[in-house]
Amino acid sequence: METNNQGDHYLSSLKNALRILNSFSMDEPEKKVSEISSSLGLNKSTVSRTMATLASEGFVYKDPETKKYRLGLSILTLSGVVNSSMDIYRESQPILNELVETLGETAHISVLDHLDVIYLHKVECNHPVRFLTHVGRRNPPYCTSSGKVLLAFSNEAVLHSVIEKGLDKYSKNTITDPLKLHANLREVKKNGYASSVEELLDGVTSIAAPIYDYKGKVIAALSIVGPKQRIPSHKIQGIAKKVISAGLEISRNMGYRKID
Amino acid sequence: METNNQGDHYLSSLKNALRILNSFSMDEPEKKVSEISSSLGLNKSTVSRTMATLASEGFVYKDPETKKYRLGLSILTLSGVVNSSMDIYRESQPILNELVETLGETAHISVLDHLDVIYLHKVECNHPVRFLTHVGRRNPPYCTSSGKVLLAFSNEAVLHSVIEKGLDKYSKNTITDPLKLHANLREVKKNGYASSVEELLDGVTSIAAPIYDYKGKVIAALSIVGPKQRIPSHKIQGIAKKVISAGLEISRNMGYRKID
DNA sequence: CACCATTGTTTCTCTATGTGAAACAATTAA
DNA sequence: TTAATTGTTTCACATAGAGAAACAATGGTG
Fold first, then answer.
1. Average pLDDT of span B110-131
2. What are phi and psi of A220, to 5 degrees?
């Protein structure tokens, strides 16, 4: 598209359709043809035909009243396939349940996808105050505990790209200085866990630990999230211990054998 | 392409791609180019280019080792949008939680999509023995309690299509006789709930009740599922009462006001 | 180690397909 | 009523995508 010239042999009509699908978000869950057309710079008729084809296979659904399109149920079906074919999903389920029960806070499994942290799995706690995250959600990696774990244990190139893209200030404690981020990640690697106290959202604290595969490579992060007042600073270390050991347990289920 | 002439203005390369995506399932979560090519009757090179394009937008992921493709994380992200933009998802959450707690069995919300029952939402119980259902799963409507509720309250045309497609025998109690199905659905409509005792799977019982929208139209079903031994026949009616009232509560949240 | 068998990607040519402008409907607004 | 904004369809043309075959990359197998 813009960067590499070798990837120009993509099927353009398909690429259009996929860009349209990816443009749906929680903020814009439904759109009209003309909106899509103008926002993505595509011809009206192109969008119209594309949407008709997408609808024919259940990827979008057209509200007959408002004429707006929203994502269709084929996507739900496919997401079920994604989950069930992901071994980490199966292996982590019971351990997440236990962790949520003992800590009383919501737990997630997440991975790095391009330059986002994406939540693969979530087990909610029973507290009435929840509703911050959901499976599939993407967040910036440099201001979430899971993101920082994943960055700390990935190669320099990824970190570089993240910094290059820019460190925006999401909340009062967001780290926007590359040097400070570097230092923080070194800490994370040393301690074996990361914490984020109001780095992404005001009033929200999270703690994360790595999950390893059979090769000893960090493939995911396990994190717990909760309101700041339920997770005061002095409790972080104790909670981190539990998160770390839960992470190791999942890792062992994934074939990891601690070497050192 | 081959069948109907009115649907001929679909974009063929896009249609191909969507058919490929929809061909992934729990049984076949990963496939090679040649497998896709032969199973869908598409040219090798077509599939190769299509997959490359799909991968470029994160809809599939290519395992560099095995060269097999699996569904990508964009689908997870989009499924999050589907869920969060679905008001029934939000409205039903707390009521499902409560129902699961009091009954101790897993609960689902499901709707009819074409001729399938599809699970939109699921709250699992704590029992170690659970089931293989998952959000997005599709089941035949005539042998699940939720499906029978949805059929009983939908129009005749849908039922006709279902019967026309054929009533396969999934389990010992599957209703395969159209007349018996008709009779059963009349019962369902009269009683306001449906039950399925080993109609889809041996050893599995489920009980479902309708969910109404503000117009009084049945738009979804609420069901609970459990092993037969935990839900004996004599308990079904009592449980059904609870399921029905939970369904009504969700309906009220969706704007339904009981008229009669 | 050479052999054949299968695979995925690329090249190439040509046709069919998708694009965009404009015409046409169908709503909605003024 | 007219005007404005929308979604769909028509149409002609350029081009993008399909298919055959060549190529490359593996992987068995003897």
1. 87
2. -160, 175
pLDDT tens across B198-233, in order? 999 999 999 999 999 988 999 999 999 999 999 999
> Is the whole model's pTM more than 0.85, yes or no?
yes
Q: For A74-86, how does the pLDDT look when each residue is reduced to its tens digit (9 = 90+)? A: 999 999 999 888 8
Determine the Cα–Cα distance for residues A193 and A210; give it in Å rounded to an integer: 7
- The b-or-e profile of A145-182 (16+ CB within 10 A means b, else e) is bbbbbbbbbbeeeebeebeeeebeebeeebbeeeeebb
Measured in angstroms, the CA of B180 and the nearest CA of chain A are apart by 30
Q: How far is A137 from B81, CA to CA, in rounded Å?
A: 9
Query: What whole-number distance in Å separates Cα of residue B225 and Cα of residue B208?
Result: 9
Q: Does A40 touch chain B (CB under 8 A)?
A: no
Distance CA A160, CA A61 (A): 40
Residues of chain A (8-67) having a beta carbon less than 7 angstroms from strand C? 9, 12-13, 16, 42-46, 49-50
Quick check: B19 CB within 7 A of strand C?
no
Chain B residue numbers with beta carbons less than 8 Å from the beta carbon of A50 are: 11, 14
- Distance CA(B163)–CA(B19), nearest Å, equals 25
Q: How far apart are the C-alpha atoms of A119 and B229, rounded to whole Å?
A: 36
* Whether B21 and A74 lie within 8 Å, measured CB to CB: yes
